[in-house]
Amino acid sequence: MTARLDQALARIRPDVRASHAYQVQPSHGVVKLDIMENPFRLPLPLQLKLGSRLGAVALNRYPAERTGELAAALLAHSGAPAGTGITLGNGSDELISLLTVALAQPGATVLSPVPSFVIYEMCAGQQRLPFVGVPLRAQDFELDTEAMLAAIEQHQPALVYLSYPNNPTGNLWDAEAIERIVQAAPGIVVMDEAYQPFAAQDSLDLMARYPHVLVMRTMSKFGLAGVRIGYLLGHPALTGEIEKLRPPFNVSVLNAEAGFFALEHAAVYAEQAATLRLERERVFAALQSLQGIEPWPSQGNMILARVRDAAATFSKLRAAGILIKNVSAAHPLLSNCVRITIGTPEENTLLLQALPGSLT
Length: 360
Ligand code: PMP
Hints:
Layout: H1 2-10, H2 14-18, E1 31-32, H3 44-55, H4 65-78, E2 85-89, H5 92-103, E3 110-114, H6 118-126, E4 131-135, H7 145-155, E5 159-163, H8 175-184, E6 188-192, H9 204-209, E7 213-218, H10 220-224, E8 230-234, H11 236-245, H12 253-264, H13 266-289, E9 293-295, E10 302-307, H14 310-319, E11 322-323, E12 325-326, E13 337-341, H15 345-354
Parallel strand pairs: 1-11, 3-4, 3-5, 5-6, 6-7
Antiparallel strand pairs: 2-8, 7-8, 9-10, 10-13, 12-13
Helix pairs in contact: 4-12, 5-6, 7-8, 13-15
4'-deoxy-4'-aminopyridoxal-5'-phosphate binds next to helix 5.
Keywords: Amino-acid biosynthesis, Aminotransferase, Histidine biosynthesis, Pyridoxal phosphate, Transferase
Domain Aminotransferase class I/classII large: 73-355
Catalytic activity: L-histidinol phosphate + 2-oxoglutarate = 3-(imidazol-4-yl)-2-oxopropyl phosphate + L-glutamate
């Protein structure tokens, strides 16, 4: 029995066996400000209406036309120009994985500024592609344009990711820096706009001007993190290649129907996003006025801040029933940094009350 199991395990790639599964922190019963979820649910009457919509979905059939219709509706919702291609993912995480699969061939590398979204590097590793992380400027987390250009020149990356706004730092990049990077990039550039509902700018114009620029979005931060719908926009020749790798039924009929429902009620979600943007500014101003914590301005639904002892701040807040993320270990530039997701006004007030006692 064990010999058989050992033999089977020996067939699994050593790098996979040495890796760790993605961990989500336990969060039952706490104020959950750790992974950039929209804290608002739909108003109860809409939840009930959604329930009856989902109840009418034919679960015995594989997803087909409805997901195609959702793709068309998302394309229209995105504001991308006519003729833009779209591919749907089971969350944008899956799209990152598919992009990496599409590019995985000898000599290919993936490049991104760091710190940024960790899944870029994880997916590259899964395809055994070298990942080149170019450190951001330490003081303001802006792109180090010259270092980015030098790394592009040296590695000729098949794929460059620019998270816009960036996770975990929350900022948008300088427009001229983006333009120069896009011009220098020999392969695909993905503008990852997961946080677009909270940002003052987007990359649709950039995408319209450069056929090698793709824009990736998700319904997760919109308010549907549990539903799992991501989408990749861009030149149909490129999205068409990713479409070939997409598992045929990756977006379930329930996901598609919930996605539709959300688009039909986009005004409700837009109002939630507007509240979160206002709350972000309120929390930012309050953090700025506190001793022992230095926040960076954000265009996302999170704020990165440096404290004296991130592990202690995390534990003290956790003991007070508030869950944030200690991102210190993710990159040397993030030493003693915590990332705080913007919650409801009540949750943010609880955070601001608990914080002073958690900073010493
Ligand atoms: N891109 C960025 C920058 C993110 O921060 C996240 C999630 N935190 C994602 C993509 C993935 O989002 P999802 O898979 O939920 O669409």
